[in-house]
Design brief:
mainly alpha, 3 helices, 0% strand
Length: 84
């Protein structure tokens, strides 16, 4: 299989930089990759015949984790501390 056709999970660590070199890193290429990722996620978890809560729960969990990471410095400084 040619390097450009491999998916991220199929690339070995030593081949990673060569694989990244085959990708389109222009703004249009990055936008196209995000759109493809959104379409794959939507079709796999949201747009299904017998849907469940899994896809929405994954999305909400990701949002909560990302929000916590973004606000960690602020949360860390607001902790109760004893001053001796």
């Amino acid at each position: 299989m040619p390097m450009a056709e491999k998916r991220l999970m199929d690339v070995k660590l030593g081949e990673f930089m060569a694989w990244i070199g085959t990708k389109d890193l222009s703004p249009n290429g990055i936008i196209a990759a995000v759109v493809r990722g959104h379409d794959r996620y939507y079709n796999k978890y949201i747009n299904v015949k017998k849907g469940g809560i899994g896809g929405v729960a994954m999305l909400l969990t990701g949002y909560v984790i990302l929000s916590y990471v973004w606000e960690y410095d602020h949360i860390k400084h607001d902790r109760w501390r004893k001053y001796h």
